[in-house]
Amino acid sequence: MNIPGRYFDGHSSAPLEATLEFDADGMVRVHGLPEPVAARVLEVEISDRIGNVARRISFPNGGVFETQDNDAIDAALDAVRDVVGLRHGSGLVHWLESRWQVALASVAGVVVITVAFLVWGVPAIANWAAGVMPASMDRAIGSGSLDVLDRVAFEDSNLPKARQRELKAMFTRMTSSLDDGHDYELELRDGGGLGANAFALPSGIVVMTDQLVELSKSDDELRAVLAHEVGHVRGRHALRHLLQAAGVTAIATALLGDVSSISGILSAAPALLDAKNSRDFETEADNFARQWLQENHVAESSFDAILCRLSHAEGSEAGKKDFDFFSTHPATGKRASCKAPADAAVAEPAEAPAGAEPSESPAPEESADPAELTDPGEPTQQQLPAEPEPVPIS
Amino acid sequence: MNESIALEGASGISASESRGASRVNLPFEFRGSGGEYFRIWIVNLLLTIVTLGIYSAWAKVRRLRYFYGNTYLDGHSFEFHGRPLAILKGRLIVFGAYLLFVFAAQINPLVVFILIPLALFGVPWIIMKSRLFQTRMSSYRNIRFNFHGTYGGALGVFVGWYLLVVITIGILYPAWVKKRVEYSLDNAAYGTQKWSFLTSTGRFYTFCLITFGLGIVAYAAFIFLVIGVAKGAQAAHGYGPAADIAALAGLGLGFWVMMLGFAAVALAIWGYYQASFLNASFGGVQIGGNYLRSNLEIAPLVWIYVTNLLGIVFTLGLFYPWAKVRQTRYQLENMAVDSDGNLSGFMADATPKTSALGEEAGDFFDVDFGL
What we know:
The complex is a heterodimer. By secondary structure, chain A is of the alpha+beta class. Chain A has helices spanning 70-79, 81-84, 91-97, 100-132, 136-142, 145-152, 161-175, 210-215, 219-234, 237-256, 260-265, 268-295, 301-314, 317-320, 332-335, 341-347, and strands at 2-8, 16-22, 27-31, 37-40, 45-46, 55-58, 64-67, 155-156, 185-190, 198-200, 205-209. In chain A, a hairpin with a 5-residue loop joins strand 6 and strand 7. Chain B is built from twelve helices and ten strands. The chains are: A alpha+beta, B alpha+beta.
């Protein structure tokens, strides 16, 4: 069979009308030229089929035969398959590319894989990468942030000096046996507008406001909050958060790289993911706190009690219910059992001081942010690697 | 972005059948379709993801072969000759270097400063190698394109001229834009035939200054409008709560109307610049007795850009292949070759096929400059 097309000798841009023939003897010949051109099938290079782009058959002499008749070339290649073999396996890609069913299935595949990777893959990789990085990295991230906060948000603590020393000593006893490269230290501040709150800097500094100390009914409650914050530090949540953000951005860029103007608009999606990851970190820190309380025989109910009181102090949390896609913290209802904290207090034999009571005193003058505390609801996907050491209890 | 467009277009130029002595107008033609490209794109995207990115080199070759192969001039199409394995190798090395840099910068941020001189001298080299790759991997009628730009030339344009622009607080900016285009186009060749870039520096100054002027006027108008609306709202204050609410509603409405209006004006100005830039760049190319013509218009360019953007956003990216095809089609179909009719006389370069080493280096540095 003769396939019509054009021949270019590779020396000049002049086209020559010609026909191509795959001979039974395993030769490919171009007919209609002043001088005949021929080569064995295995010596010519036949371009892969893509859409209906013209096919090119390149000869060893540098000449190229070009034809629009893709089907004829495919049929001819089929006929000599025993000679050519699977060299043209890329025909499979064209087969995939030319079917709408395959295209639709591919859309589904891309969506499923991308979402799954963003939700599970990125946090797992970030967790692994954080494990590889030294603790000095944590110090680098957080250095200077306390200075900034002192300037814009905090005043010096108004607690009596003796009470401050007592609390710091308590925190030191809690953390002295944690040998994980972090320099744990408690700082007390007047929270001002922030109200009752506590948070951890990546380096190991935990800041607690006077308002939180006043809101608590026992030191056990404060221990529970501090254990939660230590959970953030030990879990290296700040570093992992940075790594995850970098990973999400990298994927968005990879998928939408050519369309740089779009990626800005779609950056809302990473923000939603960010909120989800943040809730996961809170849950992880909650779990750490509860585990620590159990191992040190502190009533777990003290954690519930302070969480619920914080939530009440804020007041609005109850209305948020379970709709927490946009929230950086899980709903308090998921974190602590505010309804019947009494039985929890009874269950713990070790200590059940005043703070273990369920009583909730609304503290309306303060807007407490329960955000920094987390809830033990579901098990987290990343459990902390190290077991907390038993800590002496005052 | 402008650079890369210049490049894609650059590989899209050539000759025609002999038709006697009279001049002929040969329009470019794009025969691809959005639906066809969508299937190619999504299948290759999935294969890329499943192979953890390794297949991306093959996907890139298929994408470029699709767009080159559907670009027709005088009944003949273009061809892309890049080889996936070489591209993959280049990408892996570039990726590795990038990871190394990121990691080093994390450990000691000062590393960034050490890299500044490296980038200063490295970027012109990469641009030069990338142009070389893009032209030599393109052919028309089995004659390859070529590039004769030197590293010294790239250094002068991309570093020397850049510093000049900074020193003269931007006065030389339009001239620099021209120099960059000139480096890409004036150094290109089709076979043995070198290209010439004819557009005057004055033309670049003209459209740059008009763009600048339009921007200043639009900005000033915007500021005055904001003040005016705020004043109006203030004037309404003191006439009771109803007037206050009306003023507030008017303020909100006025805000959105203004933002939309400002976006429309900004887009129109962008369209003016883009059309002028592309026309001045491609429209200034001479290849032997043939002249490239480019007649893009502002309104269709802006329309295509806006509808593409909206389409991509509202389909979460699925519209991308259609958008790409639309943009390519509009750009190509408003370009033509004003030919002397003797377009079969181009000869292949005596040193074509480049050495394997040259090809590898070219492939290696085919880093996308973010089109």
